[in-house]
Each structure stands twice: as C-alpha cells, then as structure tokens.
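Per reviewer request, we include the raw input and output of the structure prediction for the construct analysed in the revised manuscript.
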Amino acid sequence: MTTAPGTGTSHHSPSSTRTPTRTRALAGVGALVRFGLRRDRVRLPVWILALFAGTLATAGNYRTLYADPEDRASIATTMNSPAGLAMTGPRHYLDDYTFGAMLGHQMLGFTAVLVGLMSVLTVTRHTRAEEETGRAELVRSTAVGRHAHLAAALIVAALANLALALLLALGLSGLGVGSVDTGGSLLYGFAHAAVGLVFAGTAAVTVQITAHARGASGMALAVIGAAYVLRAAGDAGGDGGDALSWLSPIGWAQRTYAYVDDRVWPLLLCLALAVLTAAAGFALSTRRDVGAGLRAARLGNAAASGALSRPLGFALRLHRGMLLGFGAGLLLMGAMYGSILGDAEDMLKNIEQIQEAIEEIGGATVAESFASIVMIVISVVAAVYAVMAALRPRSEETAGRAEPLLATGLSRARWAGSHLAVATAGGTALLLAAGIGFGASGAASTGDGALFGKLTVAALAYAPALWVTSGLTLALFGWFPRAVAAAWIVPVYAFVVGYLGQLLQFPDWMNNLSPFGHIPRLPAAEFDWTPPVLLTLLAAGLVWLGLAGFRRRDLETK
C-alpha cells in the first residue's frame, strides 16, 4: 500500500525490487555454459587437438624438408605467382621465407577456415538445434533468460578458440624451430582465435534468420567460403591489388604477418566485427519467437504434388537446399582448381614433397598427376554431403518427425532408403558437377580439350567410395544410432591420409584403410574395374546391414 509523503513509512517502487532487465535476460548463462562444455567434452577436444597436432606436424615437417636456405628461397620463388598466392597468402611473407614465414603464409589461411567451421557448428549446435528439437523452449520455461542460450553458445565457442590459441602458442614456441619465436607464436595462435570469434558471431546472426539448424549452418559456411574466396582473389592480385583481401577476416588474420612483422592491430578488426555480429545476433533474437526464424516460411501450394506423397520425393524436398548449395560450391571449387592446372608444372617444380607424390602417382603430364591429387579433396567434400544427408534419418527420428510417418503404411526400409538414395545419388551428382567444372576450367587453362572428359570421369570414379561412406552411415544408424556421428571419421581420415599423407609420406597401409584409397588415381593412373566393383558390393552389404538393424530396433525420440 502506498502512503503519503512525510508519514514516516518507507515507500519502495515496484521497479526498485526487480532484477535488472539485462540480468534477467542472461539468467542461467553459467549453468548453460557448464552444460554446453559437458555435452562437447569429446567433440571440442577432438577439434582442438586435431588442429593443434596438424599445425605442429607441419611446422616440424618444414624444418626437415627445407633445412637449407636455398630450398626455402626456391619454394618462395615458386609461390610467387597468382595461383600460388591464391592458394596460400599475401606476397609479403615471401620477402624473407623463414620457417615462421612459411607457417604463416601456407597454413594460417587454411586452418582459419577449419577454426571457423568449428565455431559455426558449436554455436548452431547450442542455439538453433536446441530450438528445433524443442529443448530450448523447455529450458526457457525455467529461470533462464531469453539471451542465455546464445550467450552461453558464444562463450563455449570463445573458450574453445582461446584454448586452441594458447595450445598453438605454447606448442609452436616450444618446438625449437628457428624463427618460430614466442611472440610470433602468440600472435599466430590468437589470429586463429580472432577469426573463430568472427565466424561464431556470424553464426549468431544466421541462427536468427532461419528456423532450421542446417540452414543456419549452411548460411554461415557460405560466409566462410566467401571470406576465403575474397582472400584468395585479393592475394592473387599482388601487393597493389589486394583490396579484396581487406574485405575478409581471414585476410585480416594473415596480415598480422606472424613471424615476419608481428602486427597486432589487424586482430582488432576481427574483434570489432565479432562484437558487432554478436550484438546483431542478440538484437535480432528479440524480433522472433522461440523456434521461429526471421525469414518467414513461404506459403506452399494448396495441394502437395504427387512427388511429395512418395518417400523419395519427400526426402528429395528435405535435402534440396543442401544439395543445391553443395553443388554450386563444388562446381566453383572444381573451376578454381582447374584454372591453375596450366601453371601446375611451374608452380610445383620446386616443391620436393609434392614432386615425390606426383612421381609416385605417375601420369603423362604434371597437370594430370596434380589433378589426381586434387580429386581427393573434391571427393572428400562430396563425402561430407553424403554423411550429412545419410544422417538426416537420425535427426528426423530424434526430433519425433519419423514416428508419425512410420505409424502409417510406410515401411522403415522405404523411409530410410529414400534418404539414402538421395545421399548416394546426390553425392554422385556433386562429383559430376565438380568434374565438369574442373574439366572445363582445366581444359581452358592448359589448352588440352581432352582433359574435360578425363577429369569428369576421374571425379565420377570416386562414386563407389562415396556409396561405402553412405552405407556405413546407414549401418551405424541401424545398429548403433547413438554412435552415428562416428561416420565423420571416414571423410576426415580420407583427407588426412589421402591428401596430407601423400605430402607427409604416410605408409601405404594407412591409405588402404580408407575406401577412397582404393580408387584408381585418374587421370594419371590406368583405370582398374576391380576396386570400384568390390567397393560397390561392400556398399550394398552395408546398406542391407543397416536396414536390417533399423527394422529390429525401437525408435528413439528425445
């Protein structure tokens, strides 16, 4: 009850006893951060240790392969071309090509993309995926603020990036490699963290736009791809035409010139953009409901088409956006690699480890041998799509959308098989698109028209390995659904052993453990029908095994 002034009774307005609005909006952040770290207790350490170990192995390999200053000067001359700079970084690193300069020039731009991928997946996993499954609404019905989920996700991503930065700084400075000093190592590590924070902020915005975790991740990954392309285009232009690189946070990180000039101020640009994007994410989150996106869903037709009434047509509709996105990306990726085939011989002639890998593969020309190495990268990217598409039944199951469908006359085999068909056929179509882009661009850059057909066939030759990847994913889904994420080991292992293993000279038995290691290295090698046929039979057996397991087990709905 309110009393009159001067009566001696104290008066408190309602607002004076309330918790501040900002505090209420962030209530529960600490608990969600601990929960997020608990959920990612395996995922994030694997990411961090893999990036850390790969960087240290590369730095140690430089010391072995380029022990003489003449070798480093030779590779610097090789890299000083538009194609070489587009694949690595700005030309200024080449002025004094020490071990540290080599690390910053050749590795920073590549690992920054992987750090961005880690950050994007972390933020979307703890925000939009939680809303899509309905868990966020349940948690927010308790004493949890409206911004707590996004704040916790950004904090978890920031902690992961800072942990990686410190590990890189300590590990590289402790290697004892000449010119890889403590100051440069600190800057090199925190350059990765700064880029990771930028893309974590980017994901904070994209999760507000769409109501689906896959769509949010796809948009953020497209931003990473655009940043890399801008960086590559700007660096290829040389010192006088690198304006495009200044539009990319990856370009900012590279222009710290770690181990060369050790400039800190470009990282301030990354931090400013990270804060700006994160703030935009918080602001946009107030303009939508939980579980909804800012982009309104388009109204569909009054009646569904005949294709949507069938399992395969419905599955294709669910995968359509991701399939088109990967298709455009692989087409451009193939065209980009093809554009440097004409300069491959000059670009690679002084790189000893690539020369040894090319000699081992064989081939009529250096361009063909180099193309066979590039095919591994293209096939692994297509395998990433195959795994994502083959994992869709698991997300449909855990979200509760599969149970109503399977309660009808639709059999489990037809339902799961429709998603698998899209994964295998879609992955094969991606290989075809990449092969066409690679072949057309490669034929134009080399002047050899026959390369178009050779490179297109070479890309399609990896289809059986792709089918094995999808079949293994289905087998895990059918028998061990909670361990289905283990399917990601196949494309990751294929890249590490098939691509990096050639450069670092891994033993052959490691390559034989990957389905991609059994595909003939076209167009350099002769085609052999036996491995593709055996891989196809193995894929069919894995599909049968997965469907048999799915028929036997109960559905799991979270």
